[in-house]
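Two folds, back to back.
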Amino acid sequence: MVLEGKIAVITGAGPGLGRTLARLMADEGAKVAVAARTPATLEAIAAETGALAVPTDVTDPEAVQALAATVHERFGRIDVLVNAAFPGTYRKNVLDMDAAYLSKWREVVDIAAYGTLLACRYLAPYMVAQGSGSIVNITSMSSRSGYAGRSDYAAGKAAVHLLSHCLADELGPHGVRVNCVAPGWIASAVLDDWMAARAAAEGTTFEEIHARDTAAMALRRIATEEDIARAVLHFASDASATTTGAVLDVNGGQHFA
């Protein structure tokens, strides 16, 4: 078990990727703490994986500081931090942004970039004190390829890429590594619904849209949550002991950086 004896914290732990990460890390021997804004979701993950559930708003400095203290008090150390908060996107063209939307745009960037910074700020000192640790930030293919209507999500995730490079340089001398995993599309009901909507708009079938989309990927398949989680596991484990400041793209060859 590649995480035997390690303590892992997952922020933004939702019912999708966050749940899969918690299960996989627990299966690989880690003791896991999950943090997000929705207590019910966290309790469900905790019941399934044995994780410690800590309701947390990642954009609230006091809440994140309390998360760090709670985990360290319970387990005595922190070895892995995975920042997986998914801010979503509200899909608006810049010419259509009103005052209400601009506030939402800022909220998305705050969750992605500021939330990641806060988690690193308050959990990394425990890693520095013990002389080792791994931080894995979940970014996105969208941080490297801009699309109309997704400037909020793209800007937030792109900020995390460069933030990670800065933190890798700052924390490296203390034995702490910082890397990114950048998913493309992830197989899910949400993705299927989007493909179905496109099919309806074009007067074609879901199967045709799916075939067309996957044909544009070198591996001809869409990544699963498990695929993404295993990439995170690589950076979390000692298998990547001399890797820091890296971005691992997991998109089936949909986009080459």
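---
second:
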Amino acid sequence: MEKIKVQDSVGAVLIHDMTQIIPGVTKGPRFRKGHVVREEDIPILLSMGKEHIYVWDQNPGLIHENEAADRLAKAACGPGLTLDEPKEGKITFTAAHDGLLYISEDGILALNSLEYIILATLHNHRPVKKGTKVAGTRVVPLMIDEKVILEAERIAKTFSTPLLEVRPLKSFKVGIVTTGNEIYHGRIQDKFGPVLRAKVEAWGSEVLKQTFASDDISLIQNSIQDHLDQGADMILVSGGMSVDPDDVTPTAIKEMGAELISYGAPVLPGAMFLVAYINDVPILGLPGCVMYSKTTAFDLFAPRLLTGERLSRRDIVKAGHGGLCLDCPVCSYPHCSFGK
């Protein structure tokens, strides 16, 4: 540490808290450890009876925690996020709008593997609202070797996507095809439609229309094609997704020439979930649990599609880690382990 005159301390970094006492008004830290002295602080320090103060030695190559945190946060920050001002070496990332949080898990690991670097986040693909705190970063020491921060900045640039970002959900035109002889012939009331419509609209999209098809492959295919012809950006096909002989929805989708990504997902509820594409239009086969379970595989993957992401089989199978819903009496998703 170094003892210097207050008048010469602009730009210096305080080595300890400095208490200000104003009788009957306040008693507490006026300047915190790590504070960088500014010109306007000089009169205050003098009024506190400080002629000299103790500061960190200004060794070449070392930078203050606030500057380090600022550079670290900017290196990791992508679109859809705002950063607050550094305070005691800490910066918070906040969602700038509603959307889905995307995190480069490998990127976060690489940064945290550097000595003295801390970057803590929420889980990947979590739905967030504007103003949600999604991450925080800081460095451990008050002064850190700039080489560490330069390496963090270099690492962040090696990834093709930002380490953290919030992607907004796009507004899709969604077609619904509800299958099943019992519904098609009016023997029972459709329960899928109201549930799907509510979810689609909550995500900011619109239902183009809902059509009904019996357990007939050609009729299901005609219904899907009709939605495609009318410009659907996504098609939801509900019912007929189990392995019973008369459940023909997966067969109908595959035999249309769709690119099948996955039939089955390591998620409970939602194991019989199907993802396919006809050109760039996602076709989702929805199992019966979507009707009665508040959160299923459908809720994990559909928002990702609404950001414009194209899902791969690897994306689906990775959901097995955290893919077990605990069926809590009061659902608190996404504030739980499901899908994490």
